[in-house]
Amino acid sequence: MAVYIVMGVSGSGKTTIGKLLAKELNLPFYDADDFHPSENVEKMKNGIPLQDEDRKGWLAILAENIQKWEQGDGAVLACSALKEKYRQQLTSIPEEYLKWIFLSADFEVILERLKARKGHYFKPELLTSQFETLEEPQYGLRVNVNTSEENILKEIMTKLKAPKAEIGLIGLGVMGKSLALNLLSKNINVSVFNRQVPGLEENIAKNFVQENAEKYTFQGFDDLKEFVSSLNRPRKVLLMVNAGAAVDAVIESLLPFLEKGDIITDGGNSHYKDTWRREKMLREQGIHFIGCGISGGEEGALKGPSIMPGGSAEAYKQMGPLLEKIAAKDKTGNPCCTHIGPDGSGHFVKMVHNGIEYAEMQLIAETYHFLRFYTNSKPTAIASLFEAWNKKMKSYLLEISVDILRKKENEDFLIDKILDAAKQKGTGGWSTNAALELGVPLDTITAAVLARNISGMKEIRVNASYLYKNDNQNGNLEEIKDELFQAYKTASIINHAVGYDLLRVASSEYSWNLNLSEISRVWTNGCIIRSGLMEDLVDIFKDSNNHLLLNKNIISEVEKNQASLTKTISIALQSGFAVPVLSAATNYLLNFTSAQNSANMIQAQRDYFGAHTYERTDKPRGEFFHTQWKNNS
User: Fold this and answer.
1) Residue 68 annotated in active site
2) Active site includes 350?
3) Shared fold status for 165-343 and 350-592
4) What is the pTM of this model?
5) Interval 378-390: pLDDT, tens
């Protein structure tokens, strides 16, 4: 039978709560103070703190009795057990039969209680030494006693009945709440934690538990130690907090409560280099760290996102099954979750996903804008056109654009009331920076990032529109819609080629051994850039990880539509409409397929002003030359 030890400093209520618990569990109650030899009692009456030597015999007697109680009907014992070595000496029975309940409270709360007590030999002056001696356990139940006895008992019983959680989630924003509900819907036992910020974030976790109490049973915490204690070993903690300093702060606050083998998973949009740094730091302390990209927004998090975890294979073996349970499913029923690779590879892949997403969104936006103002088409007409296109594209972003264009507020289209100044969280720009570091052209994604930047210059753009007489020309929808579709489709292919090339080069540079086919499969459902093209890429990259534009089927498709792409851009630019991603896709394609481009002039210029040297077409690669260019004659 189980033996329950109610522990804490004097005045925390061990005896009172222990008796109430014993009655609730129908077990005998014992007070450890009753087992002290007379010399110990005399010392405490005289205000003399007990030394470890004084406690040896007392603890040995208690350990013997704990064995007897466990072999009998069980018991509840009230015992201070302030030091870990005391608790170890009391652990005379298997851990599964010994239940520790730590009654916790602030010094001031206990002091006031002791001052009010009468007829007890413990003097309030000894409280300071008790708090100095206390080594709080990192196991068992932790209950704050600054509430009524009824509430304390209720919390203890709730926690005793509740099984240990398989996973703990920190951060109950929109994504955190949705992921928690997703986990619970898969019958995964979850504990949730949210910080307490007076006036801003108060009782978030407890309120979230209460709001969902009719459907799910789980625990919410605002005390980090209690939260960690509620988790099964090895502890698995999923962070859903803002990227950057907040992640480091949470990790730092978690570490004192974790043990070797525990796993922290960062599910936010962290930079892959930060993830790399954190993984290395935690590995040295025996803690696993997974940088996990999660795509799908609020709905995806709730119903099944695309999940991209990176880290050690050992960590994924522990955490992967839980992530796979909550992930979206591909067309064969397999989870859209896979072990991406080591280090920061998971967050790198998510970053590139977001980069591709930026360009796909901009591509749709500039196509809509061109149709709206070049052909004077109503949003509903463009929505119908996009809907027809999407029967072939099967693009989630095109699908939601149809809904957006049809949305009305009263009699007006809502799209017309939205300010044309786009926001961004930075992941698109991170892709551009990574491409620059790796020497990879990223035309479409970079163009999309910069398009958002210039959209934010609203006041300047308005002023400039008055200064420059940009007379937009008009055209006919029926005349351009077919070639515009071919242009849109081709630009989308090129954009994916650009993003995947960054993955390909990073995989080689960082020795990640990325599986582009498997990454494509993970992106076929749950994520923002899911599409028919993504389904095709699963098979294309099974055969080869080469640049997408070198695939024979892609070559055929692009060649067929290249004239429509360039013609559409020409019409748009001549008519006064910016199409940055369409243009970037075309320039990338022309540069990529050019056996001879303009870089020889660049090299000559660099050698002229900086003596940077150059290679020659009539000499082997790797030989460098310098010329005195200025003719002094």
Assistant:
1) no
2) yes
3) no
4) 0.79
5) 999 999 999 999 9
